[in-house]
Amino acid sequence: MFLSSKSLEKEKDHVEGFAPELAWVTKAGDKDLEVPVAIRPTSEAVMYPYYAKWIRSHRDLPLRLNQWNSVVRWEAKQTTPFLRTREFLWQEGHTAHLTEELAGKEVLEILELYAGVYEQLLAVPVVRGRKTENEKFAGGYYTTTVEGYIPSNGRGIQGATSHCLGQNFSKMFDITVEDPANKGSHIHVWQNSWGLSTRVIGVMIMVHGDDKGLVLPPRIAKTQTILIPVGINKSTTPEDRKKHEEQLDGIRDTLKKAGVRAESDWREGYTPAWKFNDWELKGVPLRIEFGPKDAAKEVVSWARRDTGEKGTIPIAEVATKVPELLETIQADMYAKAEKSFREHRLQITKWEDVLPALDDKNVVLIPFCGDGKCEDRIKELTTREDTQPDVPESQKLPSMGMKSLCIPFEQPEGVVAGETDCLSPECQRKAQFWTMFGRSY
């Protein structure tokens, strides 16, 4: 958790990139520390001295380690639960390889795993791409990323990153192996790092949630289906109540055997309507209602959390129909989010169209030269002065400037490297690629 200033000295470029976010411990109790101690923002300085000891031969490669831990990045900006917090839990992987080719292959493999977490589990679409030089990992060779979109405010958000560190850190920490192609000489290993944090939860909540509460994709919901008894009242006899309980719990058990994470809600003292609201708040994907009238018809009634759509299923078919319905919900949630992201990802070729597009809750693809100073200027040009400090944020135009989100791997047509002009009005360079810009977290 703690890093001495000495251990950070080797990583000048890396530390400079994190300097604004580094938190320092300067006192222990009532005594000042002779040497301040940094709270870890990431683990390179902790792990790589050991890599230098563990890696002795090319046969020790690849070395691939993963750990779950919390880190601290002391943001000066306003924090946002899950999305931008000073301390967060994450998974970080650190690997070492013999060649650039092997390292690069893994970078993309990991990025695709992260994309799968978002798209296949969380039903959140992402754009895969490469970070600009300004936005890449401090001290790294290059950074790849998956970028999402928050429809409620039109901001982009970094979902996860997979970095190729090149040989930068292996040179800092002297991580070498004998060159198998040239015996007697040594080469520095190629390294990667990659991470996914609890931010994924915040992205999922903001993409799918509504005014009623959470909306959870079935594949990650702890409870996929909640069964709620209805039609039970004071006039119901104990015998009828017991029979109803047995029927409802029997349906629940059938669903569990079919692989559905199902629960029944027999809490006393709460009306069915209160329970409906409670489970909607928790985001459970599917609600099943079962009462005497349903029993007489040998059906269950269902309601989807995502759309509110309702219907019935014969009791004899719940083991097949409910899993199918859950997969439909998963697919529909992804399709809705993907449509929103696609419709709010605009290709812009005129500078005067940029700010209106941002104000209309879009991210933009623009022809961009890739120069870091040009990128900084684009952010300045799209930043508004806040002239209404006392007005709630929701009631005034955003003042935040746009920054680059990524250079998408899938490039639309329209930019010819070396021929198309960079869109920035003050830039005289030629564009190299379409780059996705937006207001972001």
TrEMBL record:
Residue stretches making up the Aminoacyl-transfer RNA synthetases class-II family profile domain: 1-217
NCBIfam families xrefs: proS_fam_I (TIGR00408)
Catalytic activity field: tRNA(Pro) + L-proline + ATP = L-prolyl-tRNA(Pro) + AMP + diphosphate
Protein name, entry field: proline--tRNA ligase
GO molecular function: ATP binding; proline-tRNA ligase activity
BP GO terms, sorted: prolyl-tRNA aminoacylation
Similarity comment text for this entry: Belongs to the class-II aminoacyl-tRNA synthetase family.
Organism: Hypocrea virens (strain Gv29-8 / FGSC 10586)
Pfam family, one: tRNA-synt_2b
CDD domains: ProRS_anticodon_zinc
